[in-house]
């Protein structure tokens, strides 16, 4: 599914190139495609370079079908020079990337399209409209930065129903196939975090998507080689979550990441393949919808699990609000905490270490939050614990060991706060329930040279999930 919600408004912001007559009502999908194509084709100058990109639709199957039919209509007219499929993929990837950063306005759309030599861009969307669907086709004259639009109502017939009924397995397969077209043969890729939108939290849906991406990537053995567990760990440590270029000699050349969010009781999924080289360009991006019925049939939850039960929306929001002070939004300098694991998913018996990076000399404190929301300072706790980190360095914690993953199962968190001078923990060791108030108290520590309290200059946070080993 290709999603261009902001682009659809271009016709409102620009002058119309063509005068569109009243559109026919309740036609078939094929007739709507023929009508829209027949309307625009005579109005575009001959020999113009035309780019047709995928339509925004609920399923990749529907998006692909409309794209192919519109492309065929324009190509069969023999009036235009069609922009090739490789450059179309690049245009779509750039537009999707810009959308994830906010929106695509007229100027950005024109700039993206013109870079690939297109003079006219054809795109659109298909959305439910009462009992039927509304298909909107837009053509933008890139040189004039002006657009025209054609809208038609489409009956919900057998063909449309079959195109709308695309299983999520097929959507993932399509997404991986698109990724495979963007890389050189033998490219080593790793699967990164696929998380609930706006957070780093992973859930049953995260794991299902990861496993399906892996199995589909293995079918493209000529293009992809999947990074081993050791290669992925080395890459995670070297990049600190894609914050920097990988260490010299790292074999990983691209990482799959993604997000999902609630939509119409289902899930709106966005996947992308990001290069680890140069400016970490987005090589491919895909968006699709998983219905509530499909999620229920597969027993997949969007929110993290606690044991065998999905976390409630209210509980999840309370936890996010409580740990908000550790988001790093007000950091006085660059400060990060990351895992030796790209996707944040561990199984019982696995080991884990943390990497803490600080741009300045600082003193840090680490708090662990368990699946039940209990928080406890885990470093420093012994007299010999060295909680100083030198500017520009990375510390591994624990210093001489690892954290072992044990039950209970579910999402846990690591919270780190950094200070510009030494301190001692200003409370007795033990656990207490996570809340916005307890986090605020936990952030306050006692300075070694001042009996008063101080607040951190920088913070960091990373969730991780512990699952039973099957």
Can you describe this structure?
The protein has 470 residues and is an alpha+beta fold. The N terminus is likely disordered. 27% of the residues lie in helices and 32% in strands. Strand 1, helix 3 and strand 2 form a beta-alpha-beta unit. The chain folds into 3 domains: 158 residues, ABC-type transport auxiliary lipoprotein component (Rossmann fold); 135 residues, ABC-type transport auxiliary lipoprotein component (Rossmann fold, 3-Layer(aba) Sandwich); 148 residues, Immunoglobulin-like (Sandwich), CATH 2.60.40.2550. The strands form 7 sheets. Strands 14, 17, 18, 19, 22, 24 and 27 form a 7-stranded mixed sheet that branches.
What best-fitting shape do the alpha-carbon axes yield?
Answer: elongated
Structural class: alpha+beta
Give the percentage of residues in beta strands: 25-35%
Largest sheet descriptor: 7 strands, mixed
Would you give the CATH topology of the largest domain? Rossmann fold
What share of residues is helical?
25-40%
Short précis:
The chain is an alpha+beta fold. It contains twelve helices and 27 strands.
Q: Which SSEs are present, and which pair or pack?
A:
Blueprint: H1 10-13, H2 29-40, E1 49-52, H3 60-76, E2 81-82, H4 85-100, H5 106-114, E3 120-129, E4 132-141, E5 146-154, H6 158-164, H7 168-180, E6 187-196, H8 204-219, E7 224-226, H9 229-239, E8 254-263, E9 266-275, E10 282-290, H10 292-297, E11 305-306, E12 309-310, H11 313-322, E13 335-339, E14 345-347, E15 351-352, E16 354-358, E17 362-369, E18 374-379, E19 388-389, E20 393-397, E21 403-404, E22 410-419, E23 423-424, E24 432-433, H12 436-443, E25 445-447, E26 450-454, E27 458-467
């Amino acid at each position: 599914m290709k999603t261009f919600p902001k682009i659809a408004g271009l016709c409102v912001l620009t002058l119309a190139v063509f005068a569109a007559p009243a559109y026919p009502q309740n036609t078939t999908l094929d007739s709507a495609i023929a009508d829209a194509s027949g309307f625009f084709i005579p109005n575009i100058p001959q020999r113009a370079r035309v780019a047709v990109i995928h339509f925004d639709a609920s399923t990749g199957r529907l998006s692909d079908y409309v794209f192919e039919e519109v492309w065929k209509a324009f190509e069969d007219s023999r009036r235009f020079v069609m922009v090739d499929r490789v450059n179309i993929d690049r245009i779509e990837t750039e537009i999707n990337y810009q959308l994830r950063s906010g929106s695509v306005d007229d100027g950005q759309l024109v700039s993206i399209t013109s870079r690939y030599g297109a003079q006219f861009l054809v795109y659109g969307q298909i959305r439910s409209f009462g009992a039927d669907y509304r298909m909107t086709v837009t053509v933008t004259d890139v040189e004039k930065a002006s657009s025209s639009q054609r809208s038609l109502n489409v009956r919900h017939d057998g063909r449309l129903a079959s195109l709308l009924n695309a299983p999520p397995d097929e959507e993932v397969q399509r997404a991986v196939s698109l990724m495979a077209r963007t890389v050189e043969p033998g490219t080593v890729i790793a699967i990164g975090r696929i998380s609930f939108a706006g957070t780093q939290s992973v859930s049953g849906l995260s794991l299902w998507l990861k496993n399906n991406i892996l199995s589909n990537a293995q079918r493209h053995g000529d293009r992809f080689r999947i990074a081993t567990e050791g290669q992925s760990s080395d890459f995670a440590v070297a990049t600190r979550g894609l914050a920097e270029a990988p260490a010299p000699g790292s074999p990983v050349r691209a990482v799959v990441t993604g997000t999902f969010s609630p939509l119409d009781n289902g899930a709106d999924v966005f996947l992308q393949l990001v290069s680890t080289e140069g400016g970490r360009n987005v090589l491919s991006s895909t968006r699709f919808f998983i219905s509530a019925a499909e999620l229920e049939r597969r027993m997949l939850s969007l929110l993290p699990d606690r044991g065998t039960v999905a976390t409630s929306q209210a509980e999840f929001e309370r936890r996010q609000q409580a740990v908000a002070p550790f988001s790093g939004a007000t950091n006085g300098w660059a400060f990060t905490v990351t895992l030796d694991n790209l996707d944040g998913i561990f199984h019982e018996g696995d080991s884990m270490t943390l990497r803490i990076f600080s741009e300045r000399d600082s003193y840090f404190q680490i708090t662990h939050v368990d699946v039940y929301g209990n928080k406890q300072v885990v470093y420093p706790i012994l007299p010999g614990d060295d909680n100083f980190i030198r500017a520009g360095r990375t510390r591994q914690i624990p210093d001489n060991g690892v954290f072992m993953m044990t039950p209970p199962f579910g999402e846990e968190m690591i919270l780190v706060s950094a200070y510009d001078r030494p301190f001692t923990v200003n409370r007795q060791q033990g656990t207490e329930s996570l809340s916005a108030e307890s986090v605020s108290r936990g952030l306050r520590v006692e300075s070694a040279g001042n009996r008063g309290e101080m607040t951190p200059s920088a913070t960091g946070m990373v969730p991780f999930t512990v699952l039973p080993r099957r």
